[in-house]
Caffeoyl-CoA O-methyltransferase (Cylindrotheca closterium), 229 residues
Amino acid sequence: MNSSTPRPAKFANPDFVAPAVHAYVQELGYKESPILERLRLETANHPRARMMGDPSEAALFKLLISAMNVKRIVEVGVFTGYTTLAMALNLPDSGTIVGLDVSEEFTSVGKPYWIEAGVENKIDLRLGPALESLDKMISDGEESTYDFAFIDADKVNYEGYYERLIRLVRQNGIIAIDNVLWSGRVVDPKEQGDDTVALRQINKLVHGDVRVEHVMLPFADGVTLVRKK
Ligand SMILES: C[S@@+](CC[C@H](N)C(=O)[O-])C[C@H]1O[C@@H](n2cnc3c(N)ncnc32)[C@H](O)[C@@H]1O
């Protein structure tokens, strides 16, 4: 697809955005490089395709990474590595993204694209439960050494990820939290599933957290940006 061809509206329209507005944002809201587009299209055929992040949030992170001169990133939840690749593309050569996931199968989809883009040396993929990997990073003395973190794995552990990342991210670093609106289920009292309850809990925790400044963005599936004071 060349840059003048409208991008197909491939992302589920969240209930809180009018369909025409969603299509408009998909068309004009950001640019996607050809390699990211190819990885997205391959991921679209994956049985768990819905787990991939919205390209608009990947575009937001890319922009922040360049604007903030980010060098060290932690991503909790890699899947097929779309957001990983997007962020790695804007890291300087000396930059690192530690990607945490439990699945060799999911993450192996992205690896050929990381290699083709020449960013594989910047991506430090660690397979295993992310809580354990984050604890190891803390015990290895990495507190306050990361500039940017993205939480996008199992929702029931979001609070555990957040508390560990508050320690790992430096002052004025950013923690981005995905799916905070959960297709609007967070405001539906009938929705009492574990994931929904966990997301309501992290949203309240962040809102009351004096250690941070935050803003919840009602785009994609809801993304909260948290700045460590
Ligand atoms: C929503 S997907 C990540 C999507 C990715 N950030 C993107 O935007 O394309 C969630 C990922 O979290 C991983 N995951 C689930 N539980 C985990 C755990 N306890 N530790 C580490 N990764 C986990 C899954 O294997 C899955 O790949």
